Amino acid sequence: MKIASQLYRYCRRILWALIVAFMVGVHNFYKQEMDSADTIVSSIQMDEEEEDSTPKD
User: Fold this and answer.
1) How confident is the model at residue 18 (pLDDT cuts 50, 70, 90)?
2) Rounded Cα gap, residues 20 and 39, in angstroms
3) Calpha distance 50→16 (Å, rounded)
4) pLDDT above 70 coverage of the chain, percent
5) Which among 38, 18, 21, 41 has a CA at the least distance from the CA of 29?
6) How far apart are CA 29 and CA 17, in angstroms?
7) CA distance linking residue 15 with residue 19, whole number of Å
8) Cα separation of 21 and 28, whole Å?
9) Collapsing DSSP states into helix, strand and coil, what is residue 2?
10) Which SS3 state, helix, strand or coil, does residue 36 take?
11) Which of 25, 33, 49, 57 has the fewest other C-beta atoms within 10 Å?
12) How far is CA 3 from CA 16, 25, 48, in A?
């Protein structure tokens, strides 16, 4: 019974560590994708300028 308890505790700790690592990885991915508000506004303005400068057929 003691071995089963130790195995359960070991598996639970490993699972917890994997969940935390996954959550940190997801957070870092989205943190890199999201910039400050100023950067987002400037990129939107640059996109609008590019659309305006395209020749119209």
Assistant:
1) very high
2) 30
3) 47
4) 49
5) 21
6) 18
7) 6
8) 11
9) helix
10) coil
11) 57
12) 20, 33, 65
Using CB atoms within 10 Å of the CB of residue 36, give its burial: 0 to 12 exposed, 13 to 18 middle, 19+ buried. Answer: exposed
Contacts of 57 (CB under 8 A, 6+ apart): none
Strands, E assignment, the chain? none
Say which amino acid occupies 38: D
Mean pLDDT of 4-27: 91
CA-to-CA distance for 40 and 2, rounded, in angstroms? 56
Q: Provide the whole-model pTM.
A: 0.48
Q: How far apart are CA 33 and CA 40, in angstroms?
A: 11
Q: What is the mean pLDDT of the chain?
A: 76
